[in-house]
Every structure is written in structure tokens, then in C-alpha cells.
Amino acid sequence: MVQTQLEAAREGTITDAMNRVAVRENREPEFVREQVAEGQAVIPANTTHDALDPMIIGREFATKVNANIGNSETTSDLEGELEKLHTAVHYGADTVMDLGTGSDLDKIRETHIEHSPVPIGTVPLYEAVKQAGSPEAITTALLLEIIDKQAEQGVDYMTIHAGILAEHLPLTDGRKTGIVSRGGSIMATWMEAHGEQNPLFQVYDEICEIFAAHDVTFSLGDSLRPGCLADACDEAQYAELDTLGELTRRAWDHGVQVMVEGPGHVPMDKVAENVERQQAVCDGAPFYVLGPLVTDVAPSYDHITSAIGAAMAAQAGAAMLCYVTPKEHLGLPDENDVRDGLAAYRIAAHAGDVGNGRPSARDWDDALSEARYAFDWREQFRLALDPDRAREYHDQTLPEDNYKDARFCSMCGVEFCSMRIDQDARDRAGGEMDRLESGIDLESSPAAEVNRPPVGTHESATLPSDEEWTDRSVEEVGDD
């Protein structure tokens, strides 16, 4: 019989996954066990996901970042999705959610799980709509069948939209953007058509039993999250949050791990309030936030508007940030969008860790600053969050190798480089201005792995090489 990480932790057992997490986070295994036992952290680790390198999500650990990928009926295929997964893992995603709604969903999902060293999440409701043909045609039996199938395939966590109830729907009538959650709109349509309560809420205990059998983690969906600043912190959003608190405790009763999803668009002065309210209502279960976006005016730049809110949420106690790409609200992200979204969110997560004083989180910053002051360009590139892009931008104007030893860049040039001027002044001062000291050794730093370079925070021995991703033939991947 499968024992979940939560059940093992409650019994006092430190699992292999907990030991691995302790190494990665530079924390004591017993502390990891205690956090999982109390529901304050989750280790999404389906028992059949053999390629997984276990990780932990919780406010007492390094802030994590999720990358959403997935195809649609009109855009992307299996090879495209595999390339997105490869890009996401390479650039530091801690988890990946497959939100595909197009063709070949089972094959894509199985291939991701076969190769991904990071946890894979899904939203089974999307596949239910695809199979049923419309939201109204979904049946409870179909929902349970799909959830059970995905659990058997090895999905580590699933977004379940069980918190939106029939009595919540009238609360959305005065909103500016209505129900913007894809899953929330589907369940609202079903309830309006059938005049019945949310079927996911009605069979929630059965879903818990499926999750317990495979150690799948709940990601309780925020179906009524605000889709614009005007709708933030309204009665509908908070009514659903109260239900999510109840569902959290019911899942814990079944020995199932839980994290709770958070709002999308929230003004800056309300970000901390949202985190604090979720932590109180859901008894400290990890908060997994989308953004939040702190302004509505920047389509094509929403990876920036949302990273601002994400950094604030991380410092307030959010455990995982769901990235937003430049394509948010505009189109399906491609590989470059995944890269840009992850860069913005890795910055936000790291900034939150530094702001919260996570053990040695700032060592990375200090090491890069020392390399910058020493004009050690190669070390700057190595330490950069995105080494390839840092090198590319430098080499656009000074590409020759001799400039890798130069005491200037093209921004200030030789005469106006402040750091060169400062160094020369210290050399001439004859002791009146001391030389600056350095000495950060990142190899021995107690910082968590996600707070150390280079990008990519998981073991990736099972991940195919770039060539393997691109060389797959149609015969290998199928075309149903």
C-alpha cells in the first residue's frame, strides 16, 4: 500500500525524498519532515514518476517557480511541447504544468513524465471538456476517470477546481471581468446548465482517495481569482478562499498533501494582505500564486508587471510563483517566451528569498558583485541568472576575446567607467582608501540550490540532450 509523504512524515519517517530535499535546501532532514507533517510544505512526488528529482514547496524554504506549458488546437505539437519542457528545465523551472488542450494529450503527458526531473502538474478538467465536447456534457464519472488515469500516468500534482460553489456565482455579477479562470468558467457553466452543485466538490473525498493511492498533491484552484485590479479582494474571491480552507483540511484528513492557488491581478497595496489571508484561512498550507499582476495596462510586458507582484508575494510568504510570460492575455507562449518568463520569475523568487533573509541567499549576489568589480567578465557570465544572454549582450559591442579582460564595457567606455576610476584611486591613495575585500565561495555556501548558479535547479541526467529533443521523428512520438 502506498504511503504518502504526508502520512510518512506524520509517523516520524524521513523518506528518501525528504533526505534529498534536505540536501538541496541545506536544511536538516528532521525540519523537512516536520514541515511536511504539519502541512506547511509539500513534496509533489507521484510514486510512479521515476525521473523525478524531489523538491519541496513551502514558505520556510527557497521560493519556487512554476512554468506553464501546453498546446492548443491551433498551436504547437508534441515536439514543440518537448522543446518548451527542455527550455523550462534548463532555465530553472522548479515545476512544470502541462495545460495542453490540443491533440495527443496522453502521449505528451506520458513523455513529459518519462523525462522530466521536475514535478509535472496538470488540470484534468481541461481534458474532461475536450473528451465531453462542452462543459455542459461533462459527467462526474468522466472527471473521476480522467483524474485516476492521470494519477496512474505519474502526474505529481493536479489543479482541482472544487472550491467554486453554486452559491458563489451571484457574487461575480458586479465584476468588471467576470470569471477569468479557465477552470472556474467551465465549472460555472456546468452548474448553471444543470442547476446542481460543483461535481468536483461533490466527489471531493473520492478524489482524495485517488490522490492518496498515488501520492498526488492537490493544487486547489482559485476559480474566482480576480482578472483585473477592479475585481481584486472582492466577496467572490474571498468566499471561495474560505471553501479552499475547508477543502485543505479535508484533504489532510485523507493524508493528502495540499497547496492552494492564489489571485491573478492585485494592486501592490493588497498583495501582502492576500498572502496573509490565505495563510490564516488555509492553516499555513503553501500558497502558489499566479503573479499577481499589479497593473492591467501592459499587454506584452505582463512578465514584468507580474514579477513585481510576485516578488512582493514571495517576501510576504508565498511558497511558489507561477510565471507569466510576455504573451499573457495575447497568445500561446513559445520557447523564447518561456525563457523570458522564467528569467523574470527567478529574479522575483530570488529577490523574495534575499528580502526574507533565507540562509545565505545573498551569497550569489555578493559573488557576482565581486566579479563585476574585478572586471572578471567570464565569471560574471558564469554567475549570471541567464549566462548565455549576459554574454550575448556584452559581445554585441565588444565581441573579441581581449575585451573579456578589459576594465570597461561599451556603456561607459574606458574613460568613464566608475569602477575603474575607483580602483585606480584606491591604488594611488597609498593606504588612505583601502582595497575592497572579496571572498564569497559559492561552492561552500549554505544557500539552497535555487539560490546558487547556474540556472537549472534539478538533476537532469534523465533529460534528453538538445539533439534528442529535435531529432525525434513522427513515428517515435505518434500522431493520433
UniProtKB/TrEMBL annotation:
Binds 1 [4Fe-4S] cluster per subunit. The cluster is coordinated with 3 cysteines and an exchangeable S-adenosyl-L-methionine. Pfam families: ThiC_Rad_SAM. Pathway: Cofactor biosynthesis; thiamine diphosphate biosynthesis. Substrate binds at N68, M97, Y126, H161, S181, R182, G183, D222, S223, L224, R225, E261, Y288. Gene3D superfamilies: 6.10.250.620, Radical SAM ThiC family, central domain (3.20.20.540). Its cofactor is [4Fe-4S] cluster. GO terms for biological process: thiamine biosynthetic process; thiamine diphosphate biosynthetic process. NCBIfam families: PRK09284.1, PRK13352.1, thiC. This is Phosphomethylpyrimidine synthase. It comes from Natronorubrum thiooxidans.
